Task: inverse folding
């Protein structure tokens, strides 16, 4: 088993205070067109806690890519004056389209040419998704605008909420998705890069009339109860990490392609959930973990992840951390 060990805390006191970031989570990351790393975080507060002043989501921090190996070092944030601003234009608790919106949470981002794309869930609360949509940035993640691409929260039985995507070498973007309730399996879609923001261009991977094929209604490709997802290409292989809520852990699958049989793909546990008195971050035992986003520059031999942790009883720790692992199965070959 490829056990991950902690590299460092990425957010919280002593790490992100200067950006007005005390408590935050998530931290999905991509390389901007200018070469910086762009990390997008979810519900963020000025104090090292959940709640209090400065609630915003999402926020963006920038990092130097050469610091991945030793632990991300932040070099700035989106927003004037060094304060990490909320990068999307809405107010928490406002009514949009007749629906109350408490927060907007990032699920994944990607760079295509000179443009970055961010997929988000518009939520009334945790697990209650009104709709999902895609934003774009033409200035390396500093500012974001809506693309008009939007899907209702109940699309495909609620399986098109939490999403991860990655570019293939064939002109398509491949995307796995699940619900935000941590009680659903995974489905797969693809869309031409040139039509990424056209919902009608997305097609499912489904089993029909005895065969799997594109264009069929999407079939659950892996049963289970999943949360945050991250799909990335590393050389000829694809890595899919996910929070396996059903088994209380963060796993990784090594795939030859996104359409590989997920039940047969090599699977390794990176982080195991545990009780608070049994934590050992050096051995990959983390209380109340989630996330598990692959950092750019990772390889199967040196895989770096952003892992979140939230003590829901005390509201601290509420932070993102960096872990690293070496895959020991097919991914390391």
Result:
């Amino acid at each position: 088993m490829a056990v991950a060990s902690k590299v460092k805390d990425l957010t919280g006191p002593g790490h992100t205070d200067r950006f007005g970031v005390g408590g935050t989570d998530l931290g999905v990351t991509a390389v901007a067109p200018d070469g910086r790393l762009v990390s997008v975080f979810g519900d963020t507060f000025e104090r090292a806690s959940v709640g209090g002043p400065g609630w915003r989501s999402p926020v963006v921090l920038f990092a130097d890519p050469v610091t991945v190996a030793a632990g991300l070092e932040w070099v700035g944030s989106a927003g004037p004056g060094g304060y990490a601003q909320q990068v999307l234009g809405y107010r928490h608790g406002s009514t949009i389209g007749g629906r109350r919106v408490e927060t907007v949470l990032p699920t994944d981002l990607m760079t295509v040419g000179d443009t970055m794309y961010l997929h988000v869930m518009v939520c009334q609360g945790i697990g209650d998704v009104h709709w999902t949509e895609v934003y774009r940035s033409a200035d390396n993640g500093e500012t974001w605008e809506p693309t008009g691409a939007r899907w209702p929260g109940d699309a495909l039985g609620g399986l098109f909420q939490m999403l991860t995507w990655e570019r293939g070498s064939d002109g398509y973007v491949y995307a796995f998705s699940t619900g935000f309730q941590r009680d659903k399996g995974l489905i797969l879609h693809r869309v031409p890069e040139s039509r990424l923001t056209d919902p009608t261009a997305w097609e499912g991977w489904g089993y029909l009339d005895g065969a799997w094929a594109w264009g069929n209604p999407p079939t659950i490709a892996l049963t289970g109860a999943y949360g945050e997802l991250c799909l990335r290409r590393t050389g000829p292989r694809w890595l899919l990490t996910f929070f396996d809520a059903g088994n209380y852990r963060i796993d990784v699958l090594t795939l030859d392609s996104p359409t590989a049989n997920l039940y047969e793909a090599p699977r390794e546990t990176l982080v195991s959930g545990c009780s608070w008195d049994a934590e050992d971050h050096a051995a990959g035992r983390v209380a109340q973990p989630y996330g598990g986003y692959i950092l750019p520059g990772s390889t199967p031999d040196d895989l770096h992840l952003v892992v979140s942790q939230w003590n829901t009883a005390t509201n601290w720790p509420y932070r993102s951390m960096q872990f690293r692992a070496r895959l020991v199965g097919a991914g390391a070959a």
